[in-house]
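In the current project phase, we have settled on a layout for protein records. A sample record is reproduced below.
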Amino acid sequence: MAKKGYWVSAYRSVKDPDKLAAYAKLAGPAIAAYGAKYLARDVAAHAYEAGVKARIVIVEFESVAKAVAAHDSEGYQAALKVFDHAAERDFRIVEGLE
């Protein structure tokens, strides 16, 4: 059985809130088609060490393959074009422990 896959996005700063909102409207439906489940989507409650108390988004998929497919999909790529560097963020796909 494949382990779950996760998108982890840590925002450092938001440059254009309007573009970010437009991106979110497209990104949500685009990744829902791949079974995405949002686990967290808010400003960090606390930030320690080198952490920045900014927006964090964690999305769960049934596998890393589904997470990658969602990212590479036509719908999500269209959302990224709308995103157009609206924020500085660190985006990663990681494999879960189970």
